[in-house]
Amino acid sequence: MSQPFDKVLDARGMNCPMPLVNARKEAGKMEAGQVLKVLATDRGSVADFQGWAKIAKNVELLGQEEESVDGANVYVHYVKRIG
Questions:
Q1: Catalytic site residues?
Q2: Residue 42: which residues within 8 A CB-CB, separation 6 or more?
Q3: Of the candidates 80, 83, 82, 75, which has an alpha carbon nearest to the alpha carbon of residue 16?
Q4: What is each CA distance from 70 to 1, 25, 32, 41, 73, in whole angstroms?
Q5: Strand partners, 35
Q6: 5-21: pLDDT as tens digits
Q7: How far apart are CA 17 and CA 68, in angstroms?
């Protein structure tokens, strides 16, 4: 699965909760309808993004996938700004 996106946030190498903290900052700068693609190596980011999407009123989690990049697992999150 690959979603179209407007901006990429590379949070690889960051530990919890920094991928989510930085994604919230970036999403706050985006316009409604734009999609942020977040790359993270922190396994906990999967649950973090799911939890954020449940309680946030201005974002929607469009999808998540796992890729292997240079032998490392990368968790990819697609977040759409909706308000």
A1: 16
A2: 11, 14, 15, 16, 18, 19, 75
A3: 75
A4: 19, 28, 34, 12, 8
A5: 80
A6: 999 999 999 999 999 99
A7: 21
